[in-house]
């Protein structure tokens, strides 16, 4: 524990005078394979210590870092090197089963792959465990690293309170065992998961994701006020859903505003003008460049 930076990690997602935070989305999805140790290494090396990523649970209760609760056809290849067609639920696979797949390439023939034409293509990458990333940021040189850990809701288990509690407990066990509680913010679209996080780990700050265009996530009419009442630390809206007035209102409630996923230069500039606390991007270097050109710093 000696030399570790502890405390409330949410403060490191808040802006300071002349400084806006940058968050690497799934590491740096536009540049390196998403949610991989290679992508996280790159983002940290580029001077972006804030990492956003997704966690689901395998059938043998290992928290792993991947976006979907199922295998993803556009990014998972089987043992023959072919992109898969059967998007099996990860909850039906052991971690050993999951390691049979590679996730370092993207299918350029898919609509998803076409959206990321500059992503590096790398052989030999597997889905990492949450424990692997925790071990990385536990190194002394990464003491400034912070995790925006998205607890991924499984639609099949969304109403299963026991499964929800089990999922949260498994994630907490990893981050506590790795002594990275002080570097972690728990983050989700599923606010029922965040309520369970609050019950099991009230000391760990929570980040509330929102998007207006997906009706499966029932949102209250006054989102910032609701988050504040729940004891949340951050509001993470989709960048297209907000105005400068929304940002100012949330910040008046002492909420940090972290917008996602902001990739185009005009949108990055607009979010800077809105005064957001942090910008989550697939291209963190683009955000660095816009901040630098405007005389601002990042972290």
In a nutshell, what does this entry contain?
The protein is an alpha/beta fold. It has 10 helices and 9 strands.
Task: Write up what this structure looks like.
There is one protein chain. With 299 residues, the protein is an alpha/beta fold. It has a single domain, classed as Alpha-Beta Barrel (TIM Barrel), CATH 3.20.20. It contains ten helices and nine strands. An eight-stranded parallel beta barrel has the order 1-2-4-5-6-7-8-9, surrounded by seven helices.
Give short descriptive properties of this protein.
29% helix, single chain, alpha/beta, 299 residues, 10 helices, TIM Barrel, eight-stranded parallel barrel
Itemize the secondary structure elements and their pairings.
Layout: E1 21-25, H1 37-45, E2 50-57, E3 63-65, H2 95-98, H3 111-114, H4 130-137, E4 146-151, H5 161-177, E5 184-188, H6 191-200, E6 206-210, H7 223-229, E7 234-237, H8 244-252, E8 256-259, H9 265-274, E9 278-281, H10 284-293
Parallel strand pairs: 1-2, 1-9, 2-4, 4-5, 5-6, 6-7, 7-8, 8-9
Antiparallel strand pairs: 2-3
End-to-end separation in angstroms reads 23 Å
What summary fits the major beta sheet?
A: 8 strands, parallel, barrel
- Outline: globular
Low-confidence stretches: 1-6
What's the CATH topology label?
TIM Barrel
Number of helices: 10
Query: Helicity level, as a percent range?
Result: 25-40%
Strand order of the largest sheet: 1-2-4-5-6-7-8-9
CATH superfamily: Phosphatidylinositol (PI) phosphodiesterase
């Amino acid at each position: 524990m000696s030399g570790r930076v502890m405390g409330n990690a949410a403060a490191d997602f808040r802006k300071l005078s002349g400084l806006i935070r940058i968050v690497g989305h799934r590491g740096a999805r536009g540049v390196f394979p998403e949610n991989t140790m290679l992508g996280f290494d790159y983002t940290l090396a580029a001077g972006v210590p804030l990492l956003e990523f997704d966690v689901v649970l395998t059938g043998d209760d290992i928290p792993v870092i991947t976006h979907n609760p199922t295998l993803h056809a556009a990014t998972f290849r089987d043992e023959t090197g072919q992109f898969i067609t059967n998007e099996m639920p990860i909850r039906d696979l052991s971690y050993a089963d999951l390691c049979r797949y590679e996730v370092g390439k993207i299918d350029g023939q898919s609509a998803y792959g076409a959206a990321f034409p500059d992503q590096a293509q790398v052989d030999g990458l597997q889905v990492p465990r949450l424990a692997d990333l925790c071990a990385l940021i536990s190194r002394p040189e990464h003491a400034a690293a912070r995790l925006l850990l998205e607890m991924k809701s499984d639609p099949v288990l969304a109403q299963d309170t026991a499964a929800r509690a089990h999922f949260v407990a498994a994630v907490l066990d990893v981050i506590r065992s790795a002594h990275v509680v002080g570097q972690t913010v728990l983050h989700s679209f599923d606010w029922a998961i965040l309520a369970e996080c609050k019950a099991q780990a009230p000391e760990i700050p929570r980040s509330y994701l929102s998007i207006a265009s997906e009706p499966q996530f029932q949102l209250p009419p006054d989102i910032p006020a609701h988050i504040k009442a729940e004891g949340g630390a951050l509001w993470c809206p989709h960048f297209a859903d907000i105005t400068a007035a929304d940002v100012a209102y949330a910040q008046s409630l002492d909420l940090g505003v972290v917008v996602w996923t902001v990739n185009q230069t005009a949108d990055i500039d607009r979010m800077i003008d809105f005064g957001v606390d942090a910008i989550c991007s697939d291209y963190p270097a683009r955000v660095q460049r816009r901040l630098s050109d405007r005389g601002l710093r990042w972290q």
